[in-house]
Each structure stands twice: as C-alpha cells, then as structure tokens.
Amino acid sequence: QVQLVESGGGLVQPGGSLRLSCVTSGDMFSIGGMGWYRQAPGKQRELVAAITTRGSTHYEESVKGRFTISRDNAKNTLYLQLNSLKSEDTAVYYCNADQTIFLRPWGQGTQVIVSS
Q1: 112 burial class (0-12, 13-18, 19+ CB within 10 angstroms)?
Q2: Which stretches of the chain score pLDDT less than 70?
Q3: Are 85 and 68 a contacting pair, CB within 8 Å?
C-alpha cells in the first residue's frame, strides 16, 4: 500500500521560509504528476503546486513566485520550498497525486503556522 509521509513544517514568522518533504512508497512516482495540497482551518483542501514527471510545474495564483515544487525521482521524494510566507499560508500541507483519479490515501500532513 502506498504511503505518503510529509515533514518539514513548523512555526515561522511572516516573511520566513520552510522546506517541506514528502517521501512516498509504492508506485506513486511512476504514476505521473505529484502535487502539494493544503487545508486551512475551516476550508477545503486545495492544490497549491504540481509537478509532472518531466518537471513541468504549475502553481496556484496566491503562491506563484513564493513556492517552488521539485521532485527527486531516485528518492521518491517530493519537495516544496516555501518563501516569503504569509499568515494566510497557515495550513496543514499534504502531498499526493495531482489528479483525482490517481489519489492515494492521505498522509498525516505537516503543519505550517505563520505567525509573529
């Protein structure tokens, strides 16, 4: 069974940076595109960044220019570099396939709190 293990979250001041990691097992990386999602309190989970197997990326408008998604296929690991963090970036961040039909059971996520 595929497992998704996210890490790297924490408490950071506005303007700060974090780097999130997601280690996958099974065939996740061979399926295709991967993505980072986030769910803020009281809101639905949303896809904020995606990357194809060839490295093409797509970002949700509010994170463009601040977040960078990358993947290491040899390590089955997905990354998300978060820069210039804002309070509205506070959420639990998850990784998974970037297409609904390929979604696997969600991991525990990693909490990002942006606060002074």
Answers
A1: buried
A2: none
A3: no
